Amino acid sequence: MTPWNHYAFDAENRPIVVPREGPEFVASLWKRVAQTDVFYFPTWVTRGRLVNVSTVFLGIDHRWMGDGPPILFESFVSGGPLDHHCWRSCTWEEAEAMHEHVVRLVRWGFIVRMWLRGRRIH
């Protein structure tokens, strides 16, 4: 498959190749799989802030090199130490699992970071 194929979903929620100008492509573009806000305290003194983990259907194959199934989903972190990090997956089920993995990664990263800060010797 070429990296310029455009995708939408069929009745069984599987990706299918569609023309870029077609209504199926436009309707499925940026379809959200999941979104989670994680509340983060960078230090015990400062106010907390939200870190957003969002997983979306991209609509375009992002496998630019090599063979394999099309990469159609992306999990993206906005804010916190993992700001602008992304992970990509091929199927809706993989995207849901990846989203949960990234949320756990963000939460555990904050817990470990706070624990390490508390253990520092000044």
What would you say this structure looks like, in words?
The protein is of the alpha+beta class and 122 residues long. It has one domain. Helix content is 28%, strand content 30%.
Low-confidence stretches: none
Shape: elongated
The tally of helices reads 2
Strand composition percent: 25-35%
Structural class comes to alpha+beta
Widest β-sheet, arrangement of strands: 3-4-5-6
Counted beta strands: 6
Roughly how many Å apart are the termini? 57 Å
Question: What do the pLDDT scores average to?
Answer: 78
Give the domain tally.
1
Share of helix, binned: 25-40%
**Largest sheet, described in full?**
4 strands, antiparallel
Q: Which value, in Å, is the CA radius of gyration?
A: 18 Å
Sequence of secondary-structure elements:
EEHEEEEH
Keywords:
single chain, 122 residues, alpha+beta, 4-stranded antiparallel sheet, 2 helices, 28% helix
Summarize the structure.
The protein has 122 residues and is an alpha+beta fold. It has two helices and six strands; from the N terminus they run ββαββββα.
Give the SSE map.
Blueprint (H helix, E strand, L loop, with lengths): L5 E4 L5 E4 L4 H6 L3 E9 L8 E9 L15 E6 L7 E4 L2 H28 L3
Antiparallel strand pairs: 1-2, 3-4, 4-5, 5-6
